[in-house]
Give the backbone structure.
Amino acid sequence: MLVAHPVVLYMLVERYESLCVRPAGEGDGETRRRHREDLAAALCAATGAPTVEAALRAARSLLPRTGGEAGEPLGA
């Protein structure tokens, strides 16, 4: 199975998580929802996972960890 480059995975995870934690008042809700769906689809494709939750777990397992908790930075 092909796996995305760690830098690509890192960027996808960071962008997806930043959209999920950004306060609702920032930006157009419909645009944010579509962007989040696009990122979720990209994560699924990059990891071969069927759901965004599984894709996030797979991406995190493939990336070197610098933090141990959700929301802490991933990567090298």
Observations:
- The helical segments are 6-21, 29-47, 52-62.
